[in-house]
């Protein structure tokens, strides 16, 4: 399929067939479907209600990415739009690779603008396009974007001190405090979600 055409084409999102589709214009939409209404009839059969399909604009995070939430079997999947489009048109993301924007524009989620590549290549793209967080543009920075996301995630879960985090990542605990308070690395989410962790290839186990 030519994914760089001006004629918008839609494909089912893998794992969400019949419920959601992604397009060659980098958009996502839900489809008309029936969902469990949360109650049962007297005979014990479930009650379903019709849910009309609609475009899913999503919300834009400070880094410029659009987040979206899709539901399946009562479970919500919160992720970024470019991850959904890549999964639909490029196939499953290989382990350890990022979804990269060729032109550096996080709002341009057309499949032709996306690719799977290494974290190093993704970071180099951001530096080249001038979209890297301020901390990452400093060539002397000891921490990566993934480190910052993991520090904020870990600290908010509790059970570890800023001093311990500093020792773990080889930085002064004052730097960790600045990260947690949002005084540094201001372009990254202050309260990372599971979608943010997935975006940066971070596992929580």
Explain what you see.
The chain has 205 residues and is α+β, with helices and mostly antiparallel strands. Helix content is 29%, strand content 23%. The longest helix is centred in the C-terminal third of the chain and has 13 residues, at 145-157.
Quickly list its features:
single chain; 205 residues; alpha+beta; Homing Intron 3 (I-Ppo) Encoded Endonuclease, Chain A; 2 domains; three-stranded antiparallel sheet; 10 strands; 29% helix
What is the percent of helical residues? Answer: 25-40%
- The shape, in one word, is globular
Mean pLDDT: 83
| Helix/strand class | alpha+beta
**Rg, Cα atoms, Å:** 20 Å
Q: Low-confidence parts lasting 5 or more residues at pLDDT below 50?
A: none
The SSE order reads: EEEEEEEEHEEHHHHHH
Largest sheet: 3 strands, antiparallel
With strands numbered from the N-terminus, the spatial order across the biggest sheet is: 1-2-3
Give a count of the beta strands, DSSP E runs of length 2 or more.
Answer: 10
Looking at the structure, the CATH topology of the largest domain is Homing Intron 3 (I-Ppo) Encoded Endonuclease, Chain A
Distance between the termini: 38 Å
Counting DSSP H or I runs of 4 or more residues, the number of helices is 7
Highest-level CATH class of the largest domain? Alpha Beta
Going by CATH, the architecture of the largest domain would be: Alpha-Beta Complex
Indicate the proportion of strand residues: 15-25%
- How many domains? The number is 2
